Amino acid sequence: MSKQETIYRQIQERILQGYYQPGDPIIERVVAEELGASRIPVRAALLQLEQDGLVTLIPNRGANVRILSPTDLRDLFVARMAIDGMAARLAALYMDPSELELVDNEYRQILNKNEAPDPELMVSLGSDFHDKITGGCGNPVIARMAVSIADQVRLSRRLYFPHTSSVQMLRFANQHIRIVAAIRDREPDLAEKLMREHIAETYDLFRVSLDGLGSKQL
């Protein structure tokens, strides 16, 4: 892995893990010192992150973590419904269902406990669930597009998910289990339909939750 690729992945991880929050500046000089690199590969990494939709570069001012507008969010979820929906369809046709067995069992264990789930665990499981389906659908183009969209959504997800009720988290768990069942039973129409409905409901919750927090920007 090249120095630039290593730095790119380190900055990307900082963004997605919340070390940098939306709107925070990412100062080339500071990052270069922290990572023991020159500013050239840091600058190149930031250019790539701008292409990924995670960073905004402002002329003569530098880089900031991207702030998603309500329109950005809507557009991302419309795209995600189409892409993840198709991935679920293809997974029902071609994916080895055993690849989803672990995450399916984890969701069932959470539901059987009949108690409030850990929000951070649910975020992690949700990401793993979607990544396994898009990564295992057999279409690398869809997989790459899905990763890019998911990363952009994650910029704002941590703003709303801690405020999501336990009832809604468990509802999402049930939705994921139903999607896994459709894939396992080789029902592509149902798998796509359930995935689209799940993402549409996630978007509605995302929007309503942020409205309730008084957020004008995502």
Report on the structure:
It is a single chain. The protein is mainly alpha-helical. It is built from 9 helices and 3 strands. The protein has a 3-stranded antiparallel β-sheet.
Please give the order of strands in the largest beta sheet.
Answer: 1-3-2
Identify the overall geometry: globular
Helix content: over 70%
* Range of strand content: under 5%
Would you tell me the overall average pLDDT? 90
How far the N terminus sits from the C terminus, by CA atoms, comes to: 33 Å
Task: Note the total helix count.
Answer: 9
Tell me briefly what this model is.
With 218 residues, the chain is mostly helical. It is 71% helix and 5% strand.
Structural descriptors:
218 residues; mainly alpha; globular
Question: What does the secondary structure layout of this molecule look like, with pairings?
Answer:
Blueprint: H1 3-16, E1 25-26, H2 28-35, H3 39-51, E2 55-58, E3 62-65, H4 70-94, H5 101-113, H6 119-135, H7 140-160, H8 166-184, H9 188-212
Antiparallel strand pairs: 1-3, 2-3
